[in-house]
Amino acid sequence: MTKTVSLREAWSGEANCLHCALRTSVLFSGLQEADFEHIHEPIDQFALKPGAPLYLAGDTGEYLFTVRTGMLKLVQYLPDGSQRIVRIVRSTDVLGLESLLDDRYQHDAVALHATEVCRFPARLVRELGRVNPALHHELMARWQRALTEADAWLTELSTGSARQRVARLLLRLVRDRETSECPLFSREDMGAMLGVTTETASRTIAEFKRQSLLVETTPNLFLLDIPNLRRLAED
Amino acid sequence: MTKTVSLREAWSGEANCLHCALRTSVLFSGLQEADFEHIHEPIDQFALKPGAPLYLAGDTGEYLFTVRTGMLKLVQYLPDGSQRIVRIVRSTDVLGLESLLDDRYQHDAVALHATEVCRFPARLVRELGRVNPALHHELMARWQRALTEADAWLTELSTGSARQRVARLLLRLVRDRETSECPLFSREDMGAMLGVTTETASRTIAEFKRQSLLVETTPNLFLLDIPNLRRLAED
DNA sequence: CGGCCTCTTGATGTATGTCAAAGGGTGTGG
DNA sequence: CCACACCCTTTGACATACATCAAGAGGCCG
């Protein structure tokens, strides 16, 4: 029953955290050089192709992950088999926090685009967190961020008309980004994020394209008309 | 603009944590007797009437709260003024965790029934958490619990038909309870929890009553037909 | 080239939103 | 103590956004 994901094929080497390009913004940003000497367990990197699962709901969670590049969806299922995407995680985000509590993973984590992640043994993070206040604080901040995201998905992406939801999702994708260009998901995934059907997602996106709220500059790269989308999202 | 709640009238005394009836299940369950001697700041108790706010979104969060009895809703607002209830908290639940990070509160917290809470200065909890691994672990567990709840509200209460959502909400209210009787909320609140209108909530509850899925034993106390509600919730 | 998958679009049905009004309960002031 | 106002629930009539079912178009790969 409990199918487990094999990451063997996705392995792409051991990480060098001390010289990581993302070090100032990731989980370990608060660590000192000396702390890294206490890390004896290997921290591995993995590369995932679109659609590849990182872990599945119910798997024994012995690892946390940091996203280096790319994007993953966190998916939950209802008893009737329908699925709902409850969050997406992107560069510098952490996933698998529940492993710190010996929990099983709560979601399927599946790559949406080509994605690279670093993998940390939960035991290691637990031990470092016990003695290192900065990491401890960083962990709480990560948990709170996930919670804020979860709440926002409920209020922004599961409330209002389909057009409002799509508009809010699009705006969310480019928020805090330097460019207002972004790639889109499959219509099926968009539907699962917004609680609407694939067809409704497709119709809405198609309509936005016709109204030039959305312009495809390169294949699957869309430039957004932010002011008008924002107007749409709010009323 | 930022209206702050005055709890002056709700004050009902200082708590005695060491002899608290809930001590084995609350945030401080991991503390030893000796730890309590380090608590010099007062831990106050408050009693809230239905509809009374405990704090408002945007307030400077300097306190965490534990619910002793009763129930509160956590409410978020959209720019257009519509509101969404993102979670409810009940006996032994913690709210205001964001105050540990110097964040402002993310929601309005409003009593649904008569409610008693204990209030802890965030500074106190931060300090105890730094030196006490048990409390540290308990905090992480609380955060994870809130996150799991948030995800469940999205998948269970914001997905499917109105009847499914109402059924799932009702089942949730009696889960892990000794009795399958429970009080109900106003139809407006139910709507805000499920992402449907007040009228739809009302119609659905009225229909459930007619079908005896819901029997009012005492004013606003309902006995649930759990097996049939469960059947409804799933398909 | 054929098969498969996703996106799009159309036709139709229906659940839910919207607007409106009536009934019942509760509290307040005369 | 009654009368009135107010609020919440319920119900009805109607409108509509979205789901559902179905089919065609375009892209990708074996």
TrEMBL record, chains A, B:
Residue ranges occupied by any HTH crp-type domain in the UniProt entry: 160-227
Q: Which InterPro entries match?
A: cNMP-bd_dom (IPR000595), cNMP-bd_dom_sf (IPR018490), Env_Response_Regulators (IPR050397), HTH_CRP (IPR012318), RmlC-like_jellyroll (IPR014710), WH-like_DNA-bd_sf (IPR036388), WH_DNA-bd_sf (IPR036390)
Q: Which UniProt keywords apply?
A: DNA-binding, Transcription, Transcription regulation
Coiled-coil zones: none
**UniProt GO cellular component terms:** cytosol
Q: Does the keyword DNA damage apply?
A: no
Where do the Cyclic nucleotide-binding domain residues begin and end? 27-104
Any one GO molecular-function label of the UniProt entry: DNA binding
Pfam (any one): cNMP_binding
The name this protein carries in UniProt is Helix-turn-helix domain-containing protein
- Where does this protein come from, organism-wise? Allochromatium palmeri
